[in-house]
Design a protein that fits this description.
single chain; alpha/beta; TIM Barrel; eight-stranded parallel β-barrel; two-stranded antiparallel sheet; 9 helices; 10 strands
């Protein structure tokens, strides 16, 4: 189990490794371009080479990209077209940078219901995959269930995976989203039941990353609010329960916590996860 974080690329993509080293990260997630704009800034060949070299020299891997927050596979035709282009750009960037793939949020069905947008969502993602490099994965992140968001349940995620029917489609499990969506993964029996459902509906072989976030909100709230590790409703004991489950033993954990100064993941949060890993005698 490698432990890492989402880190900034300010100053150029390769600078992400400086931040990672500073906080003790062993794996990273980055934005290839602004997550709040459709306009995409593709890394240059020089930047890509430097990024790969820094990754090799630091030993920090795997690398994941996080896609734009604007992507919505359940949106209007105009938004769907923009989402396809955005996902393609991210997948191309992931290939250039040597990343495992692109983690993204499915968006919202806008009150129409999941069944009404499933075919559209599958067609959207199949289109993006068909026009992208075949050496990177498209990784769907579970949602917290807020409003009409897609993919809060493992049943919905499983139906999407089956409808797309492409081996490059994988899943990222966000602990806060999972907890908020009603899966009590902070409890031994709860995480056992949750991961049995995950395996039944999706398949554990599809799980390639975990967003490690404590919850600022109560179990089943449906609200997406991240908290620092050990300071929320999941708590240190809850993360010990999660990290001890066999389903997560070889899956990279990536912090997306606010940090003590609201500047993102820091060494203290990283050390909290490492202490749990050491306690459980899980070695890298």
């Amino acid at each position: 189990m490698r432990l890492g974080a989402h880190v900034s690329t300010a100053g150029g993509p390769a600078k992400a490794f400086d931040k990672a080293v500073d906080i003790g990260a062993e794996t990273i997630q980055i934005f290839a371009s602004s997550p709040r704009a459709w306009k995409f800034k593709m890394p240059t060949d020089e930047q890509s080479l430097e990024f790969r070299e820094r990754g090799e020299s630091t030993g920090i891997s795997p690398v994941f990209l996080h896609g734009s927050y604007l992507v919505n596979v359940g949106g209007s035709p105009e938004i769907v077209e923009k989402s396809i282009d955005c996902l393609i750009n991210n997948l191309v960037a992931a290939s250039k940078l040597g990343a495992e793939g692109v983690i993204f949020h499915g968006g919202s069905h806008k009150g129409r219901g999941f069944d009404a947008v499933l075919d559209q969502a599958a067609a959207t993602l199949n289109e993006a995959l068909s026009r992208s490099p075949d050496d990177v994965s498209l990784i769907i992140e579970n949602s917290a269930g807020m409003g009409a968001h897609i993919g809060a349940s493992f049943v919905e995620l499983g139906r999407m995976v089956k409808a797309i029917d492409d081996q490059r489609v994988k899943i990222c499990l966000d602990t806060e989203h999972c907890f908020a969506a009603g899966y009590n993964i902070a409890d031994t029996e709860g995480v056992k039941a949750a991961m049995e459902e995950f395996d039944r509906e999706i398949g554990l072989d599809k799980l390639v990353a975990v967003h490690a976030n404590d919850a600022k909100v109560e179990h089943g709230s449906g609200i997406d609010r991240h908290e620092n590790i050990g300071e929320g409703y999941i708590g240190l004991d809850g993360f010990e329960v999660i990290m001890s489950h066999p389903a997560f033993q070889d899956v990279p954990f990536l912090l997306e916590v606010p940090g003590p100064d609201k500047k993102g993941p820091d060494r203290e949060n990283m050390d909290r996860l490492k202490a749990i890993r050491e306690k459980l005698a899980i070695s890298v």
